[in-house]
Amino acid sequence: MISANTGHNYLHDAGAIESIGHKIISIKYNDGKIRVNQIDKIMEEYWDNFSREHTVQPGMVYIN
Q1: pLDDT of 29-56, one tens digit each?
Q2: Residue 62 domain-assigned?
Q3: Is residue 33 part of a domain?
Q4: DSSP characters for 25-37?
Q5: End-to-end distance of the chain based on CA atoms, in angstroms?
Q6: pLDDT higher for 59 or 15?
Q7: Distance CA 8, CA 63 (A)
Q8: Residue 23: CA count within 13 A, CB half-sphere
Q9: Mean pLDDT over each residue of the chain, to the nearest integer
Q10: Looking at the chain, which runs of residues are DSSP E strands?
Q11: Average pLDDT, stretch 17-23?
């Protein structure tokens, strides 16, 4: 799950999210919002990583 580092799920619910197998990937926000280009960057880094089978695959975005 991609989330702003101020998102409720990142600050308060991380244990609940991660207890069911999801990992929270936090990013800094701009004016309280995450931008599409920030999400694109995370996805590009994932797909460009040759050892991605050993890393977390982003699968959802949390929007406050």
Answers
A1: 877 788 999 999 999 999 999 998 898 8
A2: no
A3: yes
A4: EEE--BTTB--HH
A5: 13
A6: 59
A7: 10
A8: 6
A9: 87
A10: 2-4, 25-27
A11: 84
